[in-house]
Amino acid sequence: MLLEYAKSTAKIHERGSLKEPLFAAAATSIVGLGDAFLYPILPVYSEQLGYSALWVGVLLSVNRLVRVVGNTFVARLISSYGSKKILLFCSVLAVITTALYGVGLGVWLFLFCRILWGLSYSGFQLGTLNFAAAIKTKKGLAFGLVKSIKSLGQLVVLFLGPVLLERVGLTNSFFIIATGGGMGVLLLCFLPNKTIQYSKEPITFKRTFSVTPINWMVFVFALVVDGVMVVGLAEFLKPDYATTYHLVAAVAAYLLVKRLALVVLSLFVGYFSLFFNPSRMFLAAACLVVGGVLMVLFGWTSLGLVVVFICNSVVVCFAPYIAVQNNPVHPLQPLSAVSTWWDIGAALGALVGVYLLQNLAHFWVLLALFILCFMSLLYYFLETRNKEVVH
User: Fold this and answer.
1) Region 361-375 average pLDDT
2) Where are the beta strands (DSSP E) in the chain?
3) How far apart are CA 331 and CA 318, in angstroms?
4) In a domain, 238, yes or no
5) Owning domain of residue 382
6) Are residues 212 and 357 in the same domain?
7) How many domains are contained in the chain?
8) What is the pLDDT of residues 134-162, one digit of tens each?
């Protein structure tokens, strides 16, 4: 019945091939290098740039907060003008903001650039996922490849950023990265001008912020993993390392595992989705994330963190796929919603994570995180099973 409704209300001129999402993801990875470079650099160079610690926190988080509101607005623009035009506009905007980072801006102009970047990222995220959602077959493969390629730029910065900074300095590093971002703009020019017309049902803030099982689960997992567990890594690992140097090295190693998992595992699970149901792979990975949190709770910190970060990459990869499956008539609405809920969860977790871990016993914080994850997973599972029974 749902399929017939989709056919009658969503006229597709031409469903996309893998070329569109892959080109868009590659361009996103390239033009996003400046933002990825900023995160490890800004805290170190804050005094040289004249920014207080408070302003550093604001500048690094405001882009995510902007996306909470901006995702729905950008989804409407994509629905009206198409993914290619929005991606091209956002890529040019990203290149300009990256170049401006190296100019030595005052804090308010820097803040304005970060807001522009936040809106640009909304365009990259939704435009790329919209191309992936438009594929009739191999949809799971498309979502896996998109996540893997988009995450590749962050790894490049992690390895080559310090070398570039040492060779040419801070200002020239941003100029070089911005110049390289032009390659991403050129790559988007090769995308075909295809039109995908979905139903005329409007994309609304009410639907974006509605509490559905997948939205709530995405929010909780983002809060726990991308929020509390990422910013609290040093607190979790501190008892196992005697010196600050070794502690910092360990934190960096775990973050590297998290990045590598997004690149490598997203690629593999995308391929395996050709043979296995992506929804079941998503559910299995979510169960393992909950199990990993339980391991950390009972003292198996190292193994638990690795399990959480690796398996959560599968959850991140397939969450947009699950959301689109629930609303195939107009994918931009669920894509906007799941992206927004993830941003809210990650921002809130980062905001409260360190405070909670420094002021409360780790056991009680981890117990609360485990209960949140378990209950959100149970809610999603029961609601999904009930729908399958009805159909």
Assistant:
1) 93
2) none
3) 14
4) yes
5) 207-391
6) yes
7) 2
8) 887 778 888 888 888 888 877 787 777 77
